Amino acid sequence: DIQLTQSPSSLSASVGDRVTITCRASESISSYLNWYQQKPGKAPKLLIYAASTLQSGVPSRFSGAGSGTDFTLTISSLRPEDLATYYCQQSYISPLTFGPGTKVDIK
Amino acid sequence: QVQLQESGPGLVKPSQTLSLTCTVSGGSISSGSYYWSWIRQSAGKGLEWIGRIEASGNTNYNPSLESRVTISVDTSKNQFSLRLRSVTAADTAVYYCARDPFVFLRGVIHNWFDPWGQGSLVTVSS
Question: Over the stretch A31-46, which tens digit does the pLDDT of each residue have?
Answer without folding.
Answer: 999 999 999 999 999 9
